[in-house]
Automatic annotation (TrEMBL):
Superkingdom of the source species: Bacteria
Organism, scientific name: Jatrophihabitans cynanchi
PROSITE patterns: ABC_TRANSPORTER_1, ABC_TRANSPORTER_2
UniProt domain ABC transporter: residue ranges: 6-239
Identification of the protein by name: ABC transporter ATP-binding protein
GO MF annotation list: ATP binding
Keywords for this protein: Amino-acid transport, ATP-binding, Nucleotide-binding, Transport
Gene3D superfamilies listed in its UniProt record: P-loop containing nucleotide triphosphate hydrolases
CDD domains: ABC_TM1139_LivF_branched
Assigned protein family: Belongs to the ABC transporter superfamily.
UniProt-listed SUPFAM superfamilies: P-loop containing nucleoside triphosphate hydrolases
SMART domains given in the database record: AAA (SM00382)
InterPro entries: AAA+_ATPase, ABC_transporter-like_ATP-bd, ABC_transporter-like_CS, BCAA_Transport_ATP-bd_LivF, P-loop_NTPase
Length: 240
């Protein structure tokens, strides 16, 4: 088994001095998806923000390829290979699809030469974005806009992608499309931490599953062990 890309160890985090997450541990391996599940307010986004460097690590540690990055500022974590797509991330609707991708690259400090290669890789992954490259992003479907938001993060050439509820606000039929994109991302060797409330959809692409409730882990294991979605839901709704 390969070495973890990301290891979260006994993480405690929150907002300022307020603690909302306690003793959370899990790994993300290269080419795999770890799904972080749980109901509203469980602490999923807070955990993701601590990994990205947007919330302080109050206790425990965050390791990237074995190096402790718990105190590293957010912009350096991007350079170290962490990409993030925030929940309900909006694209610039009047700008073209390609302009949105390029802006994603500029924002992450990618050099002019690498921008073209990064663009080509994203178009290969999401051919629909190439087809719609010169259309305003606002003309894309909800699912395609989510692919574009993922594409913007990929412009920074991350090894680890933090995806916060990519299914939020999408019709159930479109959620499948977005999860198919996540499946493709795995095949490029990227490690993905997928925060979701849509349990079935997330478990379908996940290799590892961690369920949080009220800031603590209530269940974790490999997706094949936890393939009974009802058991996950019991933990999720505190029925276990
Ligand atoms: P959701 O699906 O609603 O995003 P979540 O599992 O991601 O849920 P978090 O957003 O991590 O949950 O919230 C965890 C707890 O932290 C909640 O009790 C929430 O009220 C609190 N919280 C979130 N943002 C802040 C903030 N900026 N300041 C203080 N507390 C916050």
């Amino acid at each position: 088994m390969s070495e973890p890309l990301l290891s979260v160890r006994n993480l405690a985090t929150g907002y300022g001095d307020l603690r909302v997450v306690w003793d959370v541990s899990f790994d993300v391996l290269p080419g795999q998806v770890t799904a972080l599940l749980g109901r509203n307010g469980a602490g999923k986004t807070t955990t993701l923000r601590a990994i990205a460097g947007l919330n302080k690590v109050q206790g425990g540690s965050v390791l990237l390829r074995g190096s402790d990055i718990s105190g590293t500022p957010a912009h350096k974590r991007i350079r170290a290979g962490i990409g993030m797509v925030q929940e309900n991330k909006r694209v610039f609707k009047r700008r073209t699809v390609e302009a949105n991708l390029l802006l994603g690259g500029y924002a992450r400090g990618v050099g002019r030469k690498s921008l073209r290669t990064a663009l080509d890789e994203i178009y290969e992954l999401f051919p629909v974005l190439r087809t719609r490259a010169s259309n305003p992003a606002g003309q894309l479907s909800g699912g395609q806009q989510q692919m574009l938001a993922i594409g913007q993060a990929l412009m920074g050439k991350p090894d680890l992608l933090l995806l916060d509820e990519p299914s939020a606000g999408l019709a159930p039929a479109i959620v499948g499309e977005v999860m198919a994109s996540v499946q493709q991302l795995k095949q490029t060797g990227l490690g993905v931490l997928l925060v979701e409330q849509a349990v079935e959809a997330a478990v379908g692409v996940a290799d590892q599953v961690t369920v949080l409730d009220i800031g603590r882990i209530v269940m974790s294991g490999s997706a094949s062990e936890l393939d009974d979605v009802e058991i996950i839901k019991d933990a999720y709704f505190g029925r276990a």
